[in-house]
Amino acid sequence: MVKICILFFLSLSLYAGEVVWSSGASQSVSDAEYNKAIKEYVAQKYPKELEAWEKDIDAKSVTFGDLMWQDDEDTKTVQKKWDDAQRYCNNLQPLGFNDWRLPTKSELESIVDKSREPAIKEEFKNCSSSGYWSSTTNEYGKYNAWIVNFYNGYVYSSNKDLNYYVRCVRAGQ
Question: 127-141 as b/e, with b when 16 or more CB fall inside 10 Å?
Answer without folding.
Answer: bbeebbbbbbbbeee
